[in-house]
Every structure is written in structure tokens, then in C-alpha cells.
Amino acid sequence: MKDKLPSADRIRHAAKDLFATNGFHQTSMSELAAAADMSVGLIYRSFKSKAEIIEAIVHADFDEKIADLERIRQRLGTGEITIEKSIEELFLHAMRDSDEALSFDILAEGSRNERVGQTIGKMCERLRSYLRGFALAANPSLAGDQLEGAAELMLGCMFGLGHRRLAMPRLDASQTAEQSARMMVAALRAL
């Protein structure tokens, strides 16, 4: 399967695995080339730097997250699921990210590298647009700063829940998502 992927995808997949295991700065281009089964020169034809590879990983991961959000939004729109269940699914998706170490490394690189930081920021803005929609489904009267605050709170919850493993949680992911969604909807409706 790996050999059938285009070069850029093979590099991205190999990099994601190596960066998650070894860290971004601890992974050499020669290690990446070996894992992707190609030369270092071919990597540099696809990506100018490791930072560009990080950006490609961020784009691909966010595209998957956005597709998940779109499916949840459609199910909410058709009445298949409630707003509580929608937010529960959002939170469950946030907790399913098994690359917690990679996520921390990418966020750290975003703090050091302005271009990576801007890429993360742009992706978060895409995410916020969906979160505003979910907040409005819970409370259609939200507007202005309240709506922005709701989107920021939901985004913060998703980031936190996606990195909860180190906190040694007492509830499993399903219980956490269910309780957090109930509290989020109650808070949004109370505004």
C-alpha cells in the first residue's frame, strides 16, 4: 500500500510516524528518506523543508477533521442527531487523536516557526466556522462576542480533550464526551 501512494503522501505518512515517535527535530532527513523508501533528494523535490512537511501534515489532518465535522453537521441538520449528540461526537473525535506527542510537537513548532503557526491558525479558523454553527444550533440568539466566545470555548475544549491522556482521566472517552457535551449545551443555552 505504502509503495502505491504518491511521493508527497508517502513522505507525509512516514514523517507523521517518525515525528510522533522521535520528535520533529530529532528526525533526520535520511531517516525520513529510509522510512518513505526514497532518496533525500526526492523528498526535497516534494518539500523544501521539514517545516513544509509539518504544514502538509496539518493540512491533511485538518481536512479529515473538517470532513468529520461536515458529516456531523449534516446529521444535525437532517434531525438524525440532537445538538447534544453532535457536540458529544465532536468531543469524541477530538479524543480519538492517537498522535498526542506529534500534536504537541506540531504546536511547539507553530510557536517557533511563524509560517507553521500561521498554517495552524488558518486551520483553526476553518474549525471555528463549524463551531459557531454548532453553538448557534444550541442557542440561536448568540451573536457577536458571545458567539465568538462560544466558538473559542468549544475549540479550547477540543484541544484540551485531545490532550487529556497525560492528565490520567478518571472517565473513559465516551463518558467524558457525553458529560462534556451536556455541560457545553447547558452553558450555551444559559446565555
UniProtKB/TrEMBL annotation:
Domain HTH tetR-type: residue ranges: 5-65
Any Pfam family matching the protein: TetR_N
GO molecular function: DNA-binding transcription factor activity; transcription cis-regulatory region binding
Keywords, alphabetical: DNA-binding, Transcription, Transcription regulation
DNA-binding stretch(es), residue numbering of this chain: 28-47
Domain of life: Bacteria
InterPro entries reported for this sequence: Homeodomain-like_sf, HTH-type_TetR-like_transc_reg, HTH_TetR
Database matches in SUPFAM superfamilies: Homeodomain-like (SSF46689)
Keyword Transcription found: yes
Protein name (record): TetR/AcrR family transcriptional repressor of uid operon
Organism, as annotated: Sphingobium fontiphilum
